[in-house]
Amino acid sequence: MNEMTTRPLADRMRPRSLEEFVGQSQLLAPGRALRAAAEGGRLASMILWGPPGTGKTTLARILASHAGLAFDTLSAVTDGVREVRRVVEEARQRDTGTLLFVDEVHRFNKSQQDAFLPHLESGLLVLIGATTENPAFALNNALLSRASVHVLEPLTADDLRAIAQGALDDAERGLAGDGITLEASAMDALVSAADGDARRLLNLLETAAMLGRRRADPAVVDVACVAEAASASVRRFDRGGDVFHDLTSALHKSIRGSNPDAALYWVARLLDGGCDPLYIARRLVRIASEDVGNADPRALPLAVAAADAYQRLGSPEGELALAQAAVYLAVAAKSNAVYTAFNAAREDARRLGTAPVPHHLRNAPTRLSQSLGHGRGYRYAHDEPGGYAAGEHYFPQGMSRRYYEPVDRGMESKIRDKLGHLRALDEKSPERRK
Description:
The protein has 22 helices and seven strands. The longest helix is centred in the last third of the chain and has 19 residues, at 410-428. By secondary structure, it is α/β, with parallel strands linked by helices. The chain has four domains: 24-151, Rossmann fold (3-Layer(aba) Sandwich), CATH 3.40.50; 157-229, Helicase, Ruva Protein, domain 3 (Orthogonal Bundle); 242-331, Zinc Finger, Delta Prime, domain 3 (Up-down Bundle), CATH 1.20.272; 355-428, no CATH class. It has helices at residues 3-6, 9-12, 25-28, 33-39, 56-67, 81-93, 110-114, 117-122, 135-138, 141-144, 157-169, 184-194, 198-215, 223-229, 242-256, 260-272, 277-292, 299-313, 319-331, 337-352, 367-371, 410-428, and strands spanning 46-49, 70-75, 98-103, 125-131, 148-151, 181-182, 220-221.
């Protein structure tokens, strides 16, 4: 058995030139800056940011080849500053420049990232870092100032079909010599299961081909083969990284935008990816206060009840309660008036410091506090006409604010009318405190 047959199909089919590279046309189409830089041998340090299987490592190798640079690689998972020093020493011994590819570069800490800086400044190294995390959060500013960021997108269905067909047609590195027949429906299933990831696509194709050989000669890869190969496959989900936050952001904004169908889809995506359902429940409770508020006061207890229902039932039964809450929140009247008002009040509390409580609002449980005037002059609202002490002042001395402005939607329209009436009574009251 030779090396070619023992190497995984995904490694054997790795593109060797920009012409063979599939996808990322936004970066590599003729005339694009990155392609022009590679073909002109003018590479600068960069960060390649994108999901797994989009070609970050392969692209780095191709760019090094086009630019005539020696290629060296480190993994931030296993390597540290000592390995960086080794690469630097080897680069100093070369007549050509060195392109250093660092996989999972976001896993390097600040001091490890800083170790690159003098060698990027001197031009000894051209750094290409690969990351699945947002560079703005994962990398320090000093490194980002010396490296451009290029975003790689998940591969499209057409990209994945082209890659799979290339593997089926390639007699030297692919499966053309194995007599593999791939049914059209199996290709569709393969592309769907790959979920934008070329490595996953080729790994699934190789496994499905092996299953097809066991079933028939010549091998026929059908939907059943792909389904069995993909049985352990899961959607892209990083439990706390960018994909996770993008999904939760999409859920929140779909509910805020009153689209129940999109809300259901994003709940399903989060659950499909393995998100803790109780995290979704907590997010729904937050939305009930932040985006629905008093426009529909039933939203908050319903969201809390959905969280309680999930805790009682677990999965999958309890997930329906989360879906019910998401739909209710999406179709409910919306108001962020409480959210906005509370943020403004918190800002005043921080900015104004410890303004003393007015004497008439202070508690007076002892003779000493009574002798100091605590509670003196306080008007008990229940004894006032209409149960409202018109003109009473409840802020610190010299302070008056209006934080809460109800919207004219849902229940808040009635709250708005009520507050308008009470404020009018305040304006007319001769007892209003200045």
